[in-house]
Amino acid sequence: MPHDHHDHDHDHFHHEGMSPSGHPYRGDNDGPLTYWQRMEIAVRELMLEKGHLTPAEIAAQIETMDARSPANGAAVVARAWIDPAFKARLLANASEASREMGFDIGPLHLIAVENTADTHNLIVCTLCSCYPRNLLGLPPDWYKTRAYRSRAVREPRTVLQEFGLDLPDHVTVRVHDSTADMRYIVLPARPEGTEGMNEAALAKLVTRDSMIGTGLPRSA
Amino acid sequence: MEGHDFALWEKRVDALMVLCGQKGLFTVDGLRRALEDMGEEAFEKYSYYERWIAAVNQNLIEAGVYSIEELAARMDEVAARGESYGEAQSNG
């Protein structure tokens, strides 16, 4: 029978190597239970039992979180590239302008900073991991590392070089340190040669890193 | 999509923080204050969501949502359910 197994130690999982069906085992929450995982389970259960939360609310929040991606931010950037009035509203109040496009920004102050021929913007959260997650999803791992958080402010040009961005000396680099309630998003410059492209096609050029400032949009 | 695929327990911690904020139990400033109170060592020793669940818990206890004794009892109970996160889900 396919589900027979010959593991004599039924209390533990030893998922190494290949399964009997020839597939590699995939990790499935079977690492040792940690102290902090126990705390998460305990806190969540107490919150449910005391009526502060429901399981459906937690599931829906995780689904919302999973659905956020840099495509949201890319749509905002592309709109700003083709619609000067929208761009003006975005630079004046990025929270309101994003809401106008249907993106939930929550209570945060969102500030869009524009890259121009002589200014390049970079965002960081030196303290932890504040990030425009409503428009970009969860931050990439490197954004949260001590190395990025400290070096982005100390030696931004070197950090940018490591991301493949060699900026000429005459370009000013502005580093924006995010806080718990104030987030930044970079409005990258529209690539040359994209005059004939529509909003949807332009959005495909906008990368996550170009909205963090560690990259540039794709070229057309 | 690039980036780390967060474990379920980490996503749940994130969801707990967002929902507690929405329900007015504490604010993101409360989270940050608890994180800063942990001291430098915590930032070397614990992972991002480990610090978050500790900070969420700290705020909820301070808000009187549950007591530290209730938390300790529940954590012991969870530990008795099994040796992996998957096994420890079943409540009752």
Structure characteristics:
heterodimer; A: 220 residues; alpha/beta; Nitrile Hydratase, Chain A; disordered N terminus; B: 92 residues; Cyclin A, domain 1; 5 helices
Fold and architecture overview:
The complex is a heterodimer of chains A (220) and B (92). Chain A folds into two domains: 35-66, no CATH class; 70-212, Nitrile hydratase alpha /Thiocyanate hydrolase gamma (Nitrile Hydratase, Chain A, Alpha-Beta Complex). In chain A, the strands form two sheets. A two-stranded parallel ribbon of chain A has the order 1-4. In chain A, strands 2-3 form a two-stranded parallel sheet. Helices cover 40% and strands 11% of the residues of chain A. Chain A is globular. The relative contact order of chain A is 0.14. Chain A is an alpha/beta fold and 220 residues long. In chain A, α4 packs across α5 and α7 (146-154) packs across α8 (156-162). Chain A starts with 34 loop residues before the first helix and ends in an 8-residue tail after the last helix. Chain A is built from ten helices and four strands, in the order αααααββαααββαα. By secondary structure, chain B is mainly alpha-helical. Chain B has one domain (8-80): Cyclin A, domain 1 (Orthogonal Bundle), CATH 1.10.472.20. Helices cover 65% and strands 0% of the residues of chain B. Chain B contains five helices and no strands. Chain B has helices at residues 8-22, 28-37, 40-45, 48-62, 68-81. The mean pLDDT of chain B is 89.
Taken together, the total number of domains of chain B comes to: 1
Unreliable segments of 5+ consecutive residues of chain B: none
Query: Structural class, from secondary structure content of chain A?
Result: alpha/beta
Spell out the helices and strands of chain A N to C: HHHHHEEHHHEEHH
Number of helices of chain B: 5
Largest interface: A-B, 45 and 54 residues
Q: Architecture of chain B, according to CATH?
A: Orthogonal Bundle
Question: How many individual β-strands of chain B?
Answer: 0
Q: Please summarize the sheet with the most strands of chain A.
A: 2 strands, parallel
Overall average residue pLDDT of chain A: 89
The share of residues in helices of chain B is 55-70%
Cα(first) to Cα(last) distance of chain B is 37 Å
Radius of gyration of chain A: 22 Å
Classification by helices and strands of chain B: mainly alpha
Major sheet of chain B: none
CATH class term of the largest domain in chain A? Alpha Beta
Share of β-strand residues of chain A:
5-15%
